[in-house]
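Run: sequence + zinc ion -> complex structure.
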Amino acid sequence: MDAIERVGAAIGLREPDRVPVDLHNFQMAARVSGLPMSQIFRDGGLLAEAMLMAWREFGHDMILLENGTGCNAEACGVEVHYRDDTAPVAGRSVVSSLAKVADLQVPDPYVTFPMSEILKATRILARQVGDKAWICARADQGPMDLAAQLRGIDELMMDMATGEDEELVHALLDYARRVATRYAYALVECGGRSTSIGEPIAGPAMISPRHYRRYPWDHERRMVTELKEHGIILHLHICGNTERITGDFIATGAQVLEIDHKTDAARLKKAAQGVTCLLGNIDTSLLAFGTPAEVDTACHELIDICKPGGGFILGPGCAIAPTTPADNVHALVESAKKYGSYSRT
Ligand SMILES: [Zn+2]
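>> structure
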């Protein structure tokens, strides 16, 4: 089985030859390349080269391509600050009043920076290794997170808490969904085999499960449904411990749930078995500060929990730190070969 078949089997909830491995390593890849991240994350050619260098070193099955969490926001007019040694961050919001939501235009990813650069990186990766590695080209932030960047997180929290303009909040979430969906189509057109959205602000660490269901959930579900109707696989990434929203998280219909290390993998595996594929959830702090032996042990334990029946991709629980030692990443990748074989079960 090659990497494409292996990942395809896992997402299809079948047992591959062994557990596939994903790396969420755009910052580490950029750091190793030696150029300032502010340059790499604005240039599709440089970003692709950095991701290719990392893939040649680690040989992981799935390449997760992104340039941080400000891509969609910047395309929608938010100022994004690029820094030399870490990922870019979105600056001041642009939706000062919810009444302005109706005026917002969905950007064309092919001609709007920096989406156009990530599309370029996707095309390069697809051309060079698209038959050897599964490329997940991330459509950046999902409805909730992009809405928070556009409106301002405090303002959006207040909008939701008062509930006075619920229809307009939904209009903003709907706009954010359309932005990410339009971008997702383009990423797949350029060679992504799947796409993904990050929704850190949708997690229980940021909003209550009740508000998750009331606000972003239906927009996430609609995005999944629309893309699925076009044969496109969407991963949903929610940071932090998602156990309190397990039922709704799964009910979005996302074919892959990217889970953070704070989530109990055994409980989620039980709930997701035969329904959706799980991706995760090795602690990024362990990868950054642990030893290869400790990474190996953690991966072995996780594989034993999540491997049975397929539907599992081993990877970090979130983006790995730029300074993560290469030996720890090797230990993660190798652990899938050591402990992840399905022929032994
Ligand atoms: Zn995360």
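>> summary
Strands lie at 22-23, 62-65, 80-81, 89-90, 134-137, 195-198, 234-238, 256-259, 277-282, 312-316. The chain has one domain: 3-339.
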